[in-house]
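Q: How would the structure tokens look for this protein?
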Amino acid sequence: MPTHKPSKRLLSQPHTHSVVVALVGSVFTFVSGGQSLAFIFKLKQAAPSVNPSNTDTNTSTMAKTSGSITLKGSANTVTEFFSYGINSILYQRGIYPPEQFERVKKYGLPLFITADTALKTFIDNITGQLHDWLVAKTVQKVVLVLTSVTTSEVLERWQFDIECDNSVDENTVVDKPEKETRDEIQAIIRQICSSVTFLPMLEEQCSFDMLIYTDKDAETPANWEESDAKLVKNAAEVFQLRSFSTGIHSVHSAVTYKDDM
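A: Here is the predicted structure in token form.
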């Protein structure tokens, strides 16, 4: 395998009341993703040193006909899940101060999303590119990594494996009740919100990063770079979370954490 120099990474300006973002050099890498090789992408820009998204974006995501969904509608549903899921993880794991979040209702649950414009924009950039890859049917995984600011060690890794029915195209309509999908998503969000009961407390300041695994023929978008897998060393175990399916995309989730935190 050829070696590559670490890529440079753009950093956002720190906020006055912010968490310091770790400086991580990124390396071009191929990672075995099941039967095929995959690229791992992340934004060059580091996450802002304050909190995540504020508005209830991506309104209704299912197809207009109740009980049916298109490829684009499925991508909207999955993207929306990640928008709220990322916010929920950052809030529940205390990556940003709780006063920087606002309470909203989604999936029949009270959730907390960022009130900070910079972090909202950061998350929107991630989910916007994710949406394009979902429509293109090239996404394999989405990973949220929590890293110690002091040691740069990966302490927690939330992995979401994505499967897609490759037989569908933009004209395909798949039947699945919207309520069924919403209930499945609600169950995962509930587990994220209760993560403080089964995950060890993060007793040191942490930053976060987002990785997206794509098919090996995907091109690097502007403002993104290839990354290493950022695995947890001495991982305690993999805690399996629930899954959901739109009828076109399926998402299977799990979290891994460091054993000796």
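Confidence is low (pLDDT under 50) at residues 1-37, 50-65.

Residues 6 and 27 are 5 Å apart (CA to CA).

Upvote if useful.
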